[in-house]
């Protein structure tokens, strides 16, 4: 099958890798408008469920992704000078490093990856060179993001709907390397601002700053230039950044304030074009699932192509599998987005209460969960939970082939021991 992937992000590159892994006979080309190494944003977060899939799908690239990733344990919620904590762990990786790994892996498998190839050249499907490129392919994969040019050619056929969120956010970097996934909420005379920050390497962290439209206007961010904006934000978050600077330029351009755009589509395929990743759906960044979902789309489409030699049949099967599965995820993401867009009623609490409200924002919780949450604020209980998570992490790593299985019996014993310690700590408190 001749496959053209428009967009060289994680979705398009991992589709090419996954399809080639299943059938090396596919003729696959990935075209990307930007030069090699250019990328929007700083880092992405993911969890063990993505690693499980990556290792089962392509161990070679999975090992490289894990080696380039940074592990973080716990989430820290800072409400002014107060601190609270949420258990758990995850991974983060620089987006540029992820794209480099996926590009090299795709090329090693025989995929043609063409950079500096403007997507706009494909905008006219009739009578142009771009149109002939689309027509020549058996399958055209629109992996060109939330503002997809290809999807825009047939929005009515896809049933595309977009909706902008009310909050403003800006995607920045900082040389302050956080050791946890950190939220900092800071009150100013003009309203609350907050950031979501996480380490993306040993030298830099991603720092997404968000606020309401009213606060954004009151601070004059609608007219301030990039340097002035950074100075204001650095002053507001000075204590949380330990005086570190904020970095705006990630690809030669200054970061811009944005409003989240929710994208939904009634169907994910039309003629020989199929949507994956953000072109098909977006989920609010507060649930941290965009890259994971895009790569799951890629594997699902690759498997559908493998099982159905007919491009039309493959598109239908993929659409049925993935579009239905995304409904619940997008609903959860909308709920999370709405919580942050209506945050003021929750800010009149202490840090522990606020952290619980944030952690339970996507649904009702039984009363005992709050008592469990309070227990995790105790230093001893938190330490026990971190050890427990470490044992769980190594256990899963061994199962997927990331770590030697010889270590598993001792790790399971360690996990069970720390679970008992955690239970004892709760009973004493």
Task: Describe the overall structure.
The chain is globular and about 60 Å long. The protein contains 16 helices and 15 strands. The chain has helices spanning 10-22, 48-57, 59-67, 95-108, 129-136, 149-153, 155-158, 213-218, 226-236, 238-241, 290-307, 311-341, 351-359, 367-375, 379-399, 408-428, and strands spanning 2-6, 27-31, 43-46, 70-79, 82-94, 112-114, 139-142, 161-164, 168-174, 181-188, 191-199, 205-211, 261-264, 269-270, 273-275. The longest helix has 31 residues, at 311-341. β1 (2-6), α1 (10-22) and β2 (27-31) form a beta-alpha-beta unit. The N and C termini lie far apart (63 Å). Mean pLDDT is 90; it is low at 125-129, 406-411 and 424-429. The chain has 429 residues and is of the alpha/beta class. The protein has three domains: 2-33 and 117-164 and 261-339, FAD/NAD(P)-binding domain (3-Layer(bba) Sandwich); 41-94 and 166-259 and 343-361, 2-Layer Sandwich (D-Amino Acid Oxidase, Chain A, domain 2); 378-428. α11 (290-307) runs antiparallel to α12. The strands form three sheets. A seven-stranded mixed beta sheet has the order 3-5-4-10-11-12-9. Strands 6-2-1-7-15-14 form a six-stranded mixed beta sheet, with helices on both faces.
